[in-house]
Amino acid sequence: MSIEVAIFLAIASGFAGFVDAMAGGGGLIQLPALIVGLPNKELPLILGTNKVPSIFGTTAAARNYFKNIKPDIPLTLSMMGPAFIGSMGGASLAAAVPKDFFKPFIVFLLIAVAIYTWRKPELGMNENLKYTHKKRLAIVALIGLLIGFYDGIFGPGTGTFLVFFLVSGIGYAFLKASGTAKLVNISTNAGAILSFQLTGHIWWQLGLLLAFANVTGAIIGSRLAIKGGSPLVRKVFLAVTFLLIARVAWDTFIS
Question: What predicted TM-score, i.e. pTM, was given to this entire model?
Fold first, then answer.
């Protein structure tokens, strides 16, 4: 790998960490950059390597968030455990399932997310919890399992889906949802890393190089999100969702 490619991937990873820390969607930047920069590498290796900077950046962002925001520990743990298991299962199937299988469904799901969020400007501005605490734990466990599986087998938009579910389904404000999503994302990344490592599909030297850039972007992004609060996170969330729609739609219907 040339120094030019390494620099390109590091810049992309830093920006991905910044975006992901604010509203999710860092995979929109980092994964395509790896595919472009490493055209001769097999897809499982790229997917596995992608998880290394992601887990470091997500951990740095989560640390920043929860120095300022108090998490619901039982709810977060109830989501993290199934998400870890789901991600391991998804990663184990990553080489067998064609990525094109998911793309049309993801496009329409993202469009629904964008329209719903756009039409409800009050959504996620303040916390308005739904259901009993016990029922919330059961719901987040199921969603964690499903989104974790998706993250392991495909990935782009995982953080965005987590934030949207926590805001619209549970009643979190955008800022707390983004912070909680980071902890769940740590779990999905860890599950995928374990699965990809067992099959030898991680380029650790490159992954750790990109991790430094991703962490730097994540720290800046999470600090900006905390300063701007839920209104800023909502705006970034919508922007990332629209970009995800454009990217996945291009890959699905045009390229």
Answer: 0.85
